[in-house]
Amino acid sequence: MGRGYLVEDAVERYLSDLCGQQAGPLTGLLIGQSSAQRDFVVMATRTPYKQESAVASGDFLVKEWVTEHARQVSRMLPGGLSVLGVFIITEIDNKDTLTTLRQLVFAVENMISSEHLWTPEADDVTECVTLHVNSKTRKTICRTFDVKDPKSMAKPADWKYQSGVCSSWSMVSCCLNVDMLVPLPNNRTSKENMDEGLKAWADQIKNGFCLFDGKKLPEDTEFTAGQKRNVRQKCSAQLLIKPGERRQTDVIQQCGGSLSVRGTIHSRAYVHSNKPKAKLAEKLLKRDVISTVSTRVQMLLEELLTSEEESKSHRDSQQIEQFCFPRRIFCPVKATGLVCVCDYQFSDEGLCEMTDRLKEMLDIDAVEEDLDTRQEMTAELRESNIKAEAKVENAEVLEPKRNNFTGVAIAAAAAVLAAAASMLYLNDV
Fold first, then answer.
1. How many angstroms separate the CA atoms of 71 and 264, rounded?
2. Are 325 and 263 a contacting pair, CB within 8 Å?
3. 363, 386 in Cβ contact below 8 A?
4. Tens digit of each residue's pLDDT (9 = 90 or more) over 361-394
5. Would you call 396 helix, strand, or coil by DSSP?
């Protein structure tokens, strides 16, 4: 037998309900955490329909739509939670179904990993799961593929339901001050330029010094040592970032502008209770810090595409622009206990739009009272911030709006972002 999967019993109820509702093949994502010995699946979410007629047209099986959904869902997962694989619900049992699952799981992993700003490590699990549920018999077939091997063949895996899979997981959290400068060659905020600048900052985070409750733990120390059995542990962490030997701001290079991200962000990670090491807790927390900042930069640049096109005609040759980053809001997944997912609220959005998006992307029924809005403040745009960065008169302030299920790259000329208590500035030089 191959890898083992411990699955929250709420996932079984969810898949069973989908079997009773669906009128044709239906796909979705499996979400949880991997470990060396086994994986933990804590929730599942169906792929949303593109339109009302999707069932009849079969659009829900379009690979591009499934992978775009996976990209959006991945952004809504805090540290320690990730998309582990895909499922399909259909009464058809043949090789075509396995072929479809294989194509989807490889496409999903490629899409998600393309947004990562970190290099995979040797201990990262590369096997992803596929689950076929027969809508008539409710029989499940679980297989895995090594997504780093293009020639990987399906391997059988053990799929076991259990209650309280993540009830005793530990939660690690921290607040981090961000002060990042990204040069923009040729006055362009292309994805390539942004990724290069973000990766330099991400390397600093990766090499940072991590303290848990004020202590530096050896990498091989069991993170939950001394913890009472089946009791959730909450740990406060600190990330101490040491500057590199040569900071990016010390390098002389020709550029048409710069992008500055400043402010404070909240980060958290969930750690499984199967004798995890301190090294794992540190890795998951650092990856969440990197992910939440890069996600917000990408989201804002996507939203600025329309604003950029509309403002080209009256854009000055020298200017500084200031924008609000979306703030991070958390929502508990009730079936799992205290594990939360997250979303990002733009300044022009209400909480009802957060609950709508949680329903669309993660199929979570949440009300506004469920949302945790306390972790990050709403950013404020202040004219003094602009003047402090550069003495530019009549600075233009844009309010980007956000659409659901967007996935468009943007080339903005020089923009400035301000986060939930974070500021992002873009300077034309």
1. 25
2. yes
3. no
4. 999 999 999 999 999 987 665 554 545 444 433 4
5. coil
